[in-house]
Design a protein that fits this description.
This protein folds into two domains: 136 residues, no CATH class; 32 residues. It has one helix and ten strands, in the order E-E-E-E-E-E-E-E-E-E-H. The strands form two sheets. Strands 1, 2, 3, 4, 5, 6, 7 and 8 form an eight-stranded antiparallel β-sheet that branches.
């Protein structure tokens, strides 16, 4: 579950579009938000044929998220907190909570008078390893890594044999 709270408490579920990447299902899934009595917005990571996440004991889990907000929604700082487990009760006891992350909803340049229209980006075609500002995260599978490691071992062994043969010829 993700909990979003803006200082003005004007952010509403219809202003929020969150998606999380389901690695097992290999697809982006929407996060549906509801308002809480305290003016926060709670979204649950769920979906049809989604079995949930497995967090190893004493471990961490990284989930790719992407977000966007309604053009006519409130601007300003928002604090996000993520919960692992099923919160129970009004104070959500029994759940493991992440640290708070604060970000800012800003006015998009395309909404300003005279600005060039946006070319988009970040749509469903963007792979899950893509990062907004730092480029693409590289992931190498074992099917690629093992042959590369084997080729590197053959090249290093061959180079070592050539050096050995060269030294023994000189003597």
């Amino acid at each position: 579950m993700v909990l979003l709270a803006d200082r003005s408490r004007r952010l509403r579920p219809h202003d929020i579009r969150f998606e999380f990447y389901d690695e097992r299902g290999a697809q982006w899934r929407p996060v549906r938000f509801r308002s809480t009595p305290g003016g926060e917005n709670a979204g649950v990571f769920t979906g049809r044929r989604f079995a949930g996440f497995t967090v190893p004991a004493h471990g961490d889990l990284t989930v790719a998220l992407r977000s966007r907000f309604a053009a006519d929604g409130p601007l300003g700082p928002v604090t996000a907190t993520v919960s692992a487990g099923r919160p129970s009760g009004a104070d959500a006891t029994g759940a493991g909570w992440s640290g708070q992350v604060t970000f800012r909803i800003t006015d998009h340049p395309a909404r300003r008078p005279g600005a060039a229209p946006s070319t988009g980006g970040g749509g469903p075609e963007r792979p899950p390893g893509a990062l907004a500002e730092t480029g693409r995260a590289v992931r190498i599978s074992r099917q690629v890594l093992l042959p590369l490691a084997g080729a590197a071992a053959v090249l290093l062994t061959g180079g070592g044999l050539l050096l050995y043969a060269r030294r023994t010829r000189r003597r």
